Amino acid sequence: MKKGRLKYIIIIVILIIYGSVMYLVFGVSESRERKAATTLLVGDSTVWNYSSRSWMNINTPSLLSNFNWQKFNVYLDNQYFGKYLVWHDDKWYLFDNNKNAVSYQGNLFAYQADFNIDVVNLSTTDITDYTYVNTVLKNHGFDTTVEYTLKSVSKVDFDKDGVLEDFYVISNVFAEDFFPEKYFSFVFMVDNNNIYMLYEDVDKNEGVNGCKPGLYTVADFDNDKDYELILSCAKYSNQTPLMMLYEFKDNAFEIEISNQ
Length: 260
Ligand SMILES: [Ca+2]
Ligand SMILES: [Ca+2]
Known about the structure:
By secondary structure, the chain is α+β, with helices and mostly antiparallel strands. The chain has 3 helices and 17 strands. The structure holds calcium ion (CA) (2 copies).
């Protein structure tokens, strides 16, 4: 065999091996990532897209109009409502397969994904044990005799260990029959007697500033088997609410994406 020909064969063999290794390293992981792609409609003013392990806001009218007449899995107040065609204007409108409008009430969460998202049914009640609430208030210089406009606790087994965690939501914003000097809004999780803060906001009260937080939806939105949590914060009047998607990483909550 001529030396020149042998050199070509060796180069071709090396290229084939290189190509196969590159496919195994990048191609396979790319197709695995592609499996977790989803679009979430969260209320009327937030659309998040997740693909290749990153979150993105979709907020231009032309991009939003791409979803018109597409089918989404729709939840209202975290209860499954059905599969509907959607149309975006000032809000999301829902239609059945024959394009008949379907009216609805409640907080909208809808998704399209190449995997199933199970939305957690939140059990929310008024707070009865103020031990942890008082700790948080004292840590921020508040008296524990404060009045509230919001004081709820939701139970979720967020880390899936079989024991429910408590998510406290407290606030005194937008008070009508009292006027605190300072407003506060806190959202925190208590697990094993430890407080993990998600949202804390304290400032001088002007009656219409700050926002009223709430647990919006808990689910595994990115198909990594761990739960994430969407927190809403309603602003005064008809201003767009703040929406934040949290992940629990390295023993703390971290915002993955927000609409503002
Ligand atoms: Ca748990
Ligand atoms: Ca997850």
